[in-house]
Amino acid sequence: MSRMAVGCLLLASLARAEPDRAKEIDAYLARCERFGFSGSVLVLRDKKPVIERGCGLADRERGERAAPDTVFEIASATKPFTACAILKLAEMKKLSLDDPIGKHLPDVPKDKQGITIRHLLSHTSGMSRMGGGGGGDAAAAARSYLSKPLARKPGEAFEYWNGGYALLAAIVEQASGQSYMDFCRERLFRPAGLENTGFTGDADLAKQAVGYDGGQPVRQAAGHPYGDYGFQYRGMGGIVTSVQDLRRFLDAYENGTILSAQSRELMETSVTKNYGLGWGMAETKRGTLRIGHGGDVRGFHAEIERFPKERAAVLVLCNVEGIPLWTIAWNLEALLFGEAPPYPMPPAAVDLPPEALDRLAGRYGDVLVERQGNGLLVRGGPAAKFAKEIAAAEAVVEAVRRGDAKPVAAVLMEGIPKSWPTTLVKMIWPGHVERFGELKEAKTLGASELSPGRVRVLLELRHEKGTPCLEIVFQKGRLNIFRLDATREGVGTFYLPTGPSKFTGFSWDGEQPPPLRFEGEELVLPGVRARRSP
């Protein structure tokens, strides 16, 4: 065979392989969507889209699907934009990265005079990440964020501090004479050709996703998560955009439209092991550089991952809680480059008619099965992982039913008024009983970990005149929330059918749920065999 023929066969093979890569990614996202992911995804290779699609619903009430031009809040993925604003001001000779922050901010305490703009950009200010703040102007922000003592010498070590980026937004305002928002619009958004990008509070943004937590709507993308867009959030988060506009921004950033090559190199040079100036950095298995940033705020999550040497990027925006978005982003990276995905992949499932799912719904001993969309939500059953919290929640309910405030006070979280347990048993609970009648039985529906050390237990309260749900949240074993008007959303395991009587669940980054099957009128899980209650 001639060299030309071999070359033609190779090119034909490569041409077939690239569409297959897109199909693999599309199939993966379709499975993710079936297990609850909703958002927008854009995967680029050689600056061209490999996949560009929405998943699930951006607005459940209106039935609007997510699309590449749907806008989401990107939370801490705002930080690269803030860093770009600072580097642009440096190019304009309005500041230097090695300026002490006191040159641009009023009321900087003496012990913080050694902090520079570069320290803030690289999270090496010496301030503890636990220090919060806010304020309506630069002076108030500086006083608030810098009131806590230094944890270490500036420049000594990396410690991610949101407050540093709020102070950077204040410096943008002081150095430019404009608001942070107006400077970003004029110097970043418009030159990059961003068509529908703004900040929380911008009511005119089109195609806004709604963020959801536990099945409940939180806010629209441009709604304020913290009351307003003051310095409690400005600079560290709050940009609202789409994957399409993120692509335009990255193109403008990389081609010199908004920053020089020298400024971009500064941002992408590691100051500490895994962070430059506004960008997180890590080496891939391929020996190349992954540059990016994530963002998380209630109801919205973002992952921006760039691979400059490979001219590739993975952009993922999400509007639901409970899905660690980096698992999807890193799996997409692996699929893009033909590697083994590092996180579990959702299993394949089949469709069953709604009436077939309805026939399986019901109570099986301590297990409650409800139809949810095209699958089943299973609550109860084995719960050894949260047995301690479940036992504590059940003990609290029994104490409240008896009118005994002491057991509640014994597990109460510090900071909650000591009078609250008495108010609960003497006023709140009697009013609840007056509405629903005497409590006959309390059944635990399930438990879940909201964040490390924070566990939510959901109980079904069977009263004479109704079955409301009670939510109890423990923070490191202490009672933090007792809510009598909870919904059933957010606790339980979602299963999809793999056959007429067999079902599979899925965990994004942990131990996989046990298989579920039905045998006639019986539900079968490992360690559980229960007959449907009449």
Low-confidence stretches: 1-17
Specify the overall morphology. globular
Helical segment tally? 13
Distance between the termini: 74 Å
CATH superfamily of the largest domain: DD-peptidase/beta-lactamase superfamily
Chain oligomer state: single chain
What do the pLDDT scores average to?
A: 91
How would you characterize the largest beta sheet?
Answer: 8 strands, antiparallel
Strand content: 25-35%
CATH topology of the largest domain: Beta-lactamase
User: For this structure, what is the CATH class of the largest domain?
Assistant: Alpha Beta
Q: Label the structural class.
A: alpha+beta
How would you sum up this structure, described in words?
- With 534 residues, the chain is an alpha+beta fold.
- It has two domains: 293 residues, DD-peptidase/beta-lactamase superfamily (Beta-lactamase), CATH 3.40.710.10; 106 residues, Nuclear Transport Factor 2, Chain: A (Roll).
- 30% of the residues lie in helices and 26% in strands.
- It has 13 helices and 25 strands.
- The strands form six sheets. It has an eight-stranded antiparallel sheet, with helices on one face. The chain has a six-stranded antiparallel sheet with strand order 2-1-13-12-11-10, with helices on both faces.
- A hairpin with a 5-residue loop joins strand 10 and strand 11.
- It is globular.
- It starts with a helix and ends with a strand.
- The N terminus is likely disordered.
